[in-house]
Amino acid sequence: MAIKERVGIVVSNKMDKTVVVAVESRSPHPKYGKIVVKTKKFKAHDEENQCQEGDKVRIQETRPLSKTKRWQVINIMSHSS
């Protein structure tokens, strides 16, 4: 089975070694066809505490690390200005 990867924006880094990443998905409405943007938040493991709010990051699914944390940060694609 393929390992899931997502790209999103860091919305919170207040926890130790954990960031909250908001991932947007765009899909057409089943009846009306308009593109609907849905946002889902994932808690991801950030071992070195490098991520800042607003950074664009790539996260990868991993084994459960805590009650709600099942993703880890692979790399920081761009830093916030």
Folded structure, characterized:
The chain has strands at residues 5-15, 18-28, 35-45, 56-61, 71-78. It is an all-beta fold and 81 residues long. The chain has a single domain, classed as Nucleic acid-binding proteins (OB fold (Dihydrolipoamide Acetyltransferase, E2P)). One of the primary rRNA binding proteins, it binds specifically to the 5'-end of 16S ribosomal RNA. InterPro entries: NA-bd_OB-fold, Ribosomal_uS17, Ribosomal_uS17_bact/chlr, Ribosomal_uS17_CS. Part of the 30S ribosomal subunit.
Question: How widely separated are the two ends?
Answer: 37 Å
What is the N-to-C order of secondary-structure elements (H for helix, E for strand)?
Answer: EEEEE
CATH topology-level fold name: OB fold (Dihydrolipoamide Acetyltransferase, E2P)
> Taking strands numbered 1, 2, ... along the chain, how are they ordered across the largest sheet?
1-2-3-5-4
Broad shape:
globular
- Class by alpha and beta content: mainly beta
Radius of gyration: 14 Å
What is the CATH homologous superfamily assignment? Answer: Nucleic acid-binding proteins
CATH class: Mainly Beta
Low-confidence stretches: none
CATH architecture: Beta Barrel
The helix tally amounts to 0
Percent of sequence in beta strands:
over 45%
Mean pLDDT: 95
Q: In total, how many beta strands?
A: 5
Number of domains: 1
Largest sheet: 5 strands, mixed, barrel
* Helix residue percentage: under 10%
GO molecular function: rRNA binding; structural constituent of ribosome
Organism: Synechocystis sp. (strain ATCC 27184 / PCC 6803 / Kazusa)
Keywords: Ribonucleoprotein, Ribosomal protein, RNA-binding, rRNA-binding
Family: Belongs to the universal ribosomal protein uS17 family.
